[in-house]
Structures are given as structure tokens and as C-alpha cells.
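Weekly structure sync, notes
Attendees: PL (lead), two postdocs, one rotation student
Agenda item 3: pending single-chain targets
PL asked that the sequence for the first pending target be pasted directly into the notes so everyone works from the same version. It is reproduced below exactly as submitted, 201 residues in total.
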Amino acid sequence: MKPALKLLLACAPMVFIAACGGGDDLEDRLDVADPVVRFVHASPLAPNVTLYRADVAQPNATNMAYLSASNYDYTSTAAADWSLKTASGNVQIGSTINVDPQRGNKYTFVALPTATGNSMYVIRDPYNKPLTSESTKLRVMNASFNAANIDVYMTTGTDADLKNVISKGALAYGGSAMMAPVVLSDTDMANVIAYIRSLKK
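Predicted structure, written out during the meeting:
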């Protein structure tokens, strides 16, 4: 998993889900591309899990740990039941979800905490991007079962701002304590910041 995505996911229980994967070619923009699926583990209460389609484990979403996310992967356009099971013991988590994948859509399955355990939620994102657009999409999901409504503010920030948040943790700047400080070498820090910057292109 890319380090920048791991850092964004570490902001859970507020989960940022960038909807820019899976390609950006003409088929995507015309909403005729094959559907793609990915999985995000956003439940601190759940063990490692595996995503299943019609009782078949998905290779790109197997034994996923908390705060991890799979890459997008193509899926069949045939309707199927999707479920989430523990990686050890194959115990189902939450309910089965039936999805009828449509072309031009991206599907994100998310493991979430509940008041009594864990559940799974699916997000459908139609690509719907104009042919001339250079923008990306960012989805924010409040993954806390007992939190109030939240507001999200996007600011440009400087490289120094990003470095401070990464190295000192989000709590120091009014963010979630779950995004703990991360110790990186100067080279790794520069690479993470460069990757974050690349997401807006």
C-alpha cells in the first residue's frame, strides 16, 4: 500500500477515500470501463479480514489488517453476494451485500465498527468525470458509529505543513489522535510529500 494512503487512512475514524484509482482513460470518462472493486479496513475492532465474492476470496483483499486498503481490481458485471470474513477461522463479519456491478462504476467495500461489533458498507462511485477535467475526487466517510456529524475543510498547505502533521501527528493540529506521529527519514518524508502532491494533478 502506498505510504500516503496509509497516512490518510490513519485519520480514521474519519476515512478519506480517494476515488482516483482504476484508470483515467477515455473509457473511464465515458462511463463504459469495466467495473472495479477495492477494500478498505477501517474498523479498529476487527481482526485481519478477507473480502469474498460469491464465497471466493478476492486475491487483492486477503488477510487485510486495520488501516490497510487494496488496489482497485476488475470484477465481473454479473450480480453476486459479497461478504467479509475473518482471515483466521472464516467467521463472517456483518451482513452479505448483493452488488450488481455496472460499467463506469467503482465500488469500495469498507469494514466499519458498530456499537456491537463490526459491519461492512459498500460505496458506489460513478466515474462521471468530464473529458477535459483535470480534477480528482475525494470521498470522506465518518466511520465512527458514535460520533457527531463532522465538517471537512480542504486547504492547500505547504510542504512544511505536511511534514509537521506527518512527523508530529494530527492531534497537535486539531485532528484525530489516531493519526499518530510517524518517524521517517528525510528521503522517505520527501517521497511521501511528493506523492501527496501528485494526487491533485
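Discussion points:
- The longest strand covers residues 105-113.
- Residues 3-154 form one domain.
Action: rotation student to compare against the earlier draft before next sync.
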